[in-house]
Write a structure and sequence with these properties.
22% strand; 6-stranded mixed β-sheet; 24 strands; alpha/beta; 485 residues; globular
């Protein structure tokens, strides 16, 4: 696609530029291995230039009439809709996403933008009572200033918009460092939409680079007040530590090991469909994906038969084929790692009810059961099309199994009694949990985030106001205070 070469650049202070580094990041199509683009990396110099441009532009943007900010976001929403097919094509080519998954991401990003349009006119302050006579207390909500965003490879357009759009709506400026495997979809494509929407120069900057080149300069630079990161908990821990050393706020959307639970009174056919979607959307490369599928022993045989049949029927291969459900994982290293993971699990005693092949970067789906107690697979995140099927006896055991994880991002429970499902969900330590649905859910109005090592802070809705604004107290004494000396 021709625009890959146009957008595979640094975008700093409203200009498309070549980085000044000495090496290139190569952008590959993960399905056929074709080179999409090459991007010369940004150095610490460009990091400084981007943050300084953002700092300058943000002050005027914060003082801009909120209706003018809203107009820019409305145009960005319209442009995204007009270019929906083109964006979906880019997701297929750069990320190996199936057409269904690409459409899902574009639709989600559009909803985030639609909510950001409303957020630009949210109330900016409150009046509060005082214990002192004659005092008026005003509590203002102000933009934090500049936000640094480090995005992941798996849903870079949607996750990028989840931070960028509300941050701009609330009067901030943003500098984005997209994942190396998604420099266009997670960076250049978003910058182009806002550029064409009339966003003033400097308010959104894109740096395509790597920590091997810039170290922690992106995190430790004095300008950004908030660092928002989406990715693994291992990297998230490092970012949190580096940011804390400079007293920066962090919003961390990290790894997951979600479980989908099927109680004995569930609609088994429906639960099977939800489990297949929850595990295998985008080849399982989703932090909310159902790594573990827990089924009450009384319905386990029926569920297992239907689930394995559905999984075995999933079509794997070319993501451009609209019938394909399993496309490539994002690189050869991940494909090899997943193959080795399954081989090791079987060698350790697990049973493969479905055993997929690996063809290039396409890893066909696998279903494992009978994992031995203490298997590391039960507590780790698996970014790939590998499902772990487990049985339990009664709700108490199910709760124990779900909570036996260092992560607490998402999950789901299926039951014939919705309020029973709510009571079950209340016992789970996680940021999100869903009754009679999939584990993969996102709603622009509802706080999104995890507990335990699945992250810090929340995005979406009112949560982004907390994340990307600060509070300032101003008091006015309309009478005269009495001072003790």
């Amino acid at each position: 696609m021709s625009f890959f070469h146009e957008l595979a650049h640094q975008y700093i202070d409203g200009e498309w530029r070549t980085g000044s580094g000495s090496w290139d990041i190569i952008d590959f199509n993960p399905y056929n291995g074709e080179k999409i683009a090459a991007v010369t990396v940004a150095t610490a110099l460009e990091v400084d230039q981007a943050y300084r441009a953002a700092e300058r532009a943000q002050q005027e943007w914060a003082a801009t009439n909120p209706y003018e900010r809203r107009a820019v976001l409305e145009r960005a929403l319209r442009i995204t809709g007009e270019r929906a097919d083109e964006i979906a094509e880019a997701i297929i080519d750069e990320l190996g996403g199936t057409r269904l998954r690409a459409t899902y991401e574009v639709r989600g990003a559009s909803e985030v933008l639609r909510e950001a349009v409303r957020q630009s006119l949210r109330p900016t302050g409150r009046l509060l009572p005082s214990v002192t006579d004659g005092r008026e207390n005003r509590l203002y909500r102000l933009p934090v200033g500049v936000i640094g965003v480090i995005s992941a490879f798996n849903f870079p357009f949607l996750v990028g918009m989840k931070t960028i759009a509300p941050a701009l709506a609330l009067g901030n400026a943003v500098v984005v460092k997209p994942h190396q495997s998604a420099p266009v979809v997670g960076g250049g494509l978003i910058a182009k939409i806002f550029e064409d929407a009339g966003l003033p120069a400097g308010l959104l900057n894109v740096l395509i680079t790597d920590s091997a080149e810039i170290g922690d300069a992106f995190i430790e630079h004095p300008v950004p007040k908030v660092i928002s990161f989406s990715g693994s908990d291992r990297v998230g821990r490092h970012i949190a530590g580096a940011a804390a050393g400079h007293l920066k706020r962090t919003i961390l959307e990290l790894s997951g090991n979600s479980a989908l639970v099927v109680l004995e009174d569930a609609d088994v056919d429906y639960a099977v469909r939800a489990a297949v979607f929850s595990r295998f959307l985008y080849q399982g490369q989703v932090s909310m994906a159902a790594n573990r599928i827990l089924v009450d022993r009384s319905v386990a045989a029926e569920f297992t038969e239907r689930f394995t049949a559905e999984v075995a029927a999933l079509k794997s291969g070319d993501p451009r084929d609209p019938e394909t459900r399993i496309g490539p994982v994002f690189n050869a290293f991940q494909a090899d790692a997943l193959t080795a993971l399954v081989d090791r699990a079987v060698a350790d005693g697990a049973t493969a009810l479905v055993r997929g092949r690996t063809r290039g970067n396409v890893v066909e789906p696998t279903v494992l059961t009978d994992l031995p107690d203490g298997s590391p697979l039960l507590t780790q995140e698996i970014l790939g099309p590998v499902a772990l099927l487990m049985t339990f006896d009664g709700e108490d055991e199910a709760v124990t199994l779900v909570n036996d994880s260092p992560y607490g991002l998402s999950g789901a429970v299926h039951t014939g009694d919705a309020e029973r499902g709510v009571r079950f969900a209340q016992r789970i330590v996680s940021g999100m949990f869903h009754v009679n649905d999939s584990t993969v859910q996102d709603d622009p109005l509802v706080a999104f985030g995890g507990e335990k090592t699945s992250g810090l802070g929340r995005l979406n809705g009112e949560a982004v106001v907390e994340a990307f604004t600060t509070q300032k107290w101003m008091s006015i004494q309309h009478g005269r205070s009495v001072f003790p000396f």
